[in-house]
What we know:
By secondary structure, the protein is α+β, with helices and mostly antiparallel strands. The chain has helices at 26-35, 90-96, 116-124, 127-133, 207-210; strands spanning 2-3, 48-52, 55-67, 73-79, 85-88, 159-173, 178-190, 196-204, 219-228, 249-259.
Amino acid sequence: MTTTSSSQLETKLLPPKGEFETFxxxxxxxxxxxxxxxxxxxxxxxxxxxxxxxxxQLVQIKGYETxxxxxxxxxxxxxxxxxxxxCIHPAYLKEMxxxxxxxxxxxxxxxxxxxxxxxxxxxxxxxxxxxxxTVEKEPxxxxxxxxxxxxxxxxxxxxxxxxxxxxxxLTWNNFNEENDEVIILEDVIINQDPNIExxxxxxxxxxxxxxxxxxxxxxxxxxxxxxxxxxxKGKDVEEKYLVDIPVYFKINNPSKIKKS
Length: 260
């Protein structure tokens, strides 16, 4: 297997859709890399092999995205030597580090190039890769009135919010192939100096939140991290669970929630 530049790779790159989590410091990087099973040695690696067909090259991990009911799952963001970035599931990147990656059997002396169908199978084997390749489309009747996400400089650290519950809704989750419960928030404001008005945002309706017995129209104070991530539409849901506006921001792991 030879090394090559990312421009020669056969696999179509999957760049991050927007903002993603970066590492707070070296210890945070070490913690996440070990959590993903990418390093078991005391000296954690800074570069990893990205393999595609008969070629390979070194990449660096620049951060990660979160998904799942409480953001417990991750997608890694890797960066190639030319600066281009791509999303990849941790298990898939881990598999690339093995000498047998890409071989049809253990007796082969050369690596069989990944065909488009084989590549697809590999990607489908990880639910996050499926999710990243899903293209969200607005209904045709709204195509002329598509809205764009507002340009807001989002803080990277956990911040304090005030917001009001607009509605409870359902969103499609490719990981478990069913709709997940979410909360749509309105009048979302990041409380700092000066305040940042977000407008609408969404968050997972976790077991912790359900214990609070929240109702529509209720005002909340809480802490959390906000990222740019559009709310996916639910599939085959009742009208009351449909969201009639685009929601471009997600709040991860809300905590210290108070009703105000």
